[in-house]
Amino acid sequence: MARVALVTGGSRGIGAAISKKLKAEGYDVAATYAGNDDAAAAFTAETGIKTYKWNVGDYDSSSEGLAKVEADLGPIDVVVANAGITRDAPFHRMTKEQWQEVIDTNLTGVFNTVHPLWNGMRERKFGRVIVISSINGQKGQFGQVNYAATKAGDLGIVKSLAQEGARFGITANAICPGYIATEMVMAVPEKVRESIISGIPAGRLGEPEEIARCVAFLAADDAEFINGSTISANGAQFFV
Ligand code: CAA
């Protein structure tokens, strides 16, 4: 039977590429989204991948949504915590709300997505937790104190989960995309974006598919010994 994969924020941007790649690799895929019904409907029409709507920042909604996915598709073997938002502002102008929204979605959202699935993975002695972090969690970024804090937090989550899950056949790894050609990056002011691209040795933004291939690699059954690691995919912009 095909393994079941769940991708949060899986109907747009990097998440959509991940959902499609996992489907192409033979997984039964469910994609979640937070608000854009039209984009989700178009994505399902194009790919045949079922979408589910809930707010990853809310534990109860996540638990209920995950239970519904499992009732439809079976136990989730691979969870890709990809949903994320930006609320960029220089720190002196960052509001409490901008801080909290990003923490709730990007950091607490990972807890809310993985925690309800964890005991099932332990019982079944198999699990793949893949968290989409960011280059900006590794190096920080002007205007992203909130976002960088969550993406650095992701790395702490996977390193800890890896140690807890290893005996149970569960791996937890992070991917740190650099600047990828998605709506999120296109929302950065053009002048700033051009200056960012000029600092990428590859001379271009990455493609969502270039992140999706990292996910497929980590999700595989024979990837069990890769645990607690971080894959950077950033066109040589930054090394750790
Ligand atoms: N380093 C040093 N100084 C910088 C700077 C930087 N990276 N960026 C801006 N500044 C300076 C500017 O030069 C300017 O200085 P002066 O007033 O002396 O000219 C000052 O800071 C204000 O800059 P802005 O005019 O840009 O200020 P703003 O308030 O309009 O915007 C901002 C601030 C929202 C942070 C904007 O600069 C911005 O959007 N920056 C991009 C942040 C970014 O990279 N976000 C990534 C989004 S994509 C993503 O997050 C995906 C991922 O994982 C990679």
Secondary-structure topology with pairs:
Blueprint: E1 4-7, H1 13-24, E2 28-33, H2 37-47, E3 50-53, H3 59-73, E4 78-81, H4 96-124, E5 127-132, H5 135-139, H6 145-165, E6 170-177, H7 183-186, H8 190-198, H9 208-219, E7 230-233
Parallel strand pairs: 1-2, 1-4, 2-3, 4-5, 5-6, 6-7
Helix pairs in contact: 1-9, 3-4, 4-6
Bound molecules: acetoacetyl-coenzyme A.
Kindly describe this structure:
- This protein has 240 residues and is an alpha/beta fold.
- It starts with a strand and ends in a 7-residue tail after the last strand.
- It has one domain (4-226): Rossmann fold, CATH 3.40.50.720.
- Helices cover 49% and strands 15% of the residues.
- The chain has helices at 13-24, 37-47, 59-73, 96-124, 135-139, 145-165, 183-186, 190-198, 208-219, and strands at residues 4-7, 28-33, 50-53, 78-81, 127-132, 170-177, 230-233.
- Bound molecules: acetoacetyl-coenzyme A (CAA).
Strand pairing plus helix content: what structural class? alpha/beta
The amount of helix comes to 40-55%
Strand content: 15-25%
**Helix and strand succession?**
EHEHEHEHEHHEHHHE
The CATH topology is given as Rossmann fold
- What's the shape? globular
Report the major sheet: 7 strands, parallel
Assembly context of the chains: single chain
Bound molecules: acetoacetyl-coenzyme A
**Whole-number count of domains:** 1
CATH architecture: 3-Layer(aba) Sandwich
CATH superfamily: NAD(P)-binding Rossmann-like Domain
Distance between the termini: 39 Å
The count of DSSP E runs of length 2 or more, i.e. the number of strands, is 7
**Cα-based radius of gyration, to the nearest Å:** 17 Å
pLDDT averaged over residues? 97
User: Which runs of at least 5 residues are low in confidence (pLDDT < 50)?
Assistant: none
Placed side by side, the strands forming the largest sheet appear as 3-2-1-4-5-6-7
Continuous helix count: 9
